[in-house]
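1st attempt posting a full record on here, be nice pls
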Amino acid sequence: MADTQTPPHQISSPYKNRNTSYQRRTLKQLPNAIIIGVAKGGTRALIDMLSLHSGVEAAQGEVHFFDWEENYVMGFPWYVSRMPYISPGQLTVERTPGYFTSTLVPGRIHQMNPDIKLLLIVREPAERVLSEYTHRFHSKLVEHKDTKPILDYLLKDGEINVDYIAIKRSLYYLHIQNWLKYFSPDRIHIVDGDELIRNPWQEMKQVERFLELEPQIDASFFYFNQTKGFYCLKNHGQEQCLKKNKGRPHPYVAPAILQKLHRYFHEPNKSFFQLVGRTFNWT
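the predicted structure (as tokens):
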């Protein structure tokens, strides 16, 4: 399908005349904001935390409309059907981490809505590489597929393997350039994924301001889980932590190799900082 789709009108719910708080959510609409990535940067934690706000409803799972052709050819009616029902005044948010590294997605989203608000969560690039390896390693174990030690991916002839897809995904400056061709920096809010782990309510205050939401999410929504070693959520009195496949320990990598990886990312990180107009506390 050519990239000339026309977004549809809102879809109304058949439950609009029933008098319960859930069923008063009567409309589905295109998203007001999209979490575009980065993969293994904390997108799931971000959308779970954002969903604590009464003014937000989030689509379930990863929608993959703009980056998977088999979904994109279904058109905007299919996309809207994947959105949650909302009440008047609520924001619709979807999350698909794969959007950030796709060259097609920025233009497609801009065509849908040039004024949409975009959320990008990033982590220290080397740490993100290890997270991606860990995720895929355990996925292969579950699928009974062969696995390789991390050094088989990280190194090639003793040097950093620049062709390793996880390393390419951590070259944030390359990908953000594509988005800045279509969106001004004020339409993209960058969340510090490392800080979201340490001080989640402080990062969420900035997200609320960006989305023009009234302040709601504060320290009372979080508790520190000593077993997991990070903050979990308190939602209407219910404790909620990320699934067990999140927050897994990373494989051991010798300090000398980690240092080499950090050196590799040093210049790309500086380019990213210049493009987005801020710095991060990355080694």
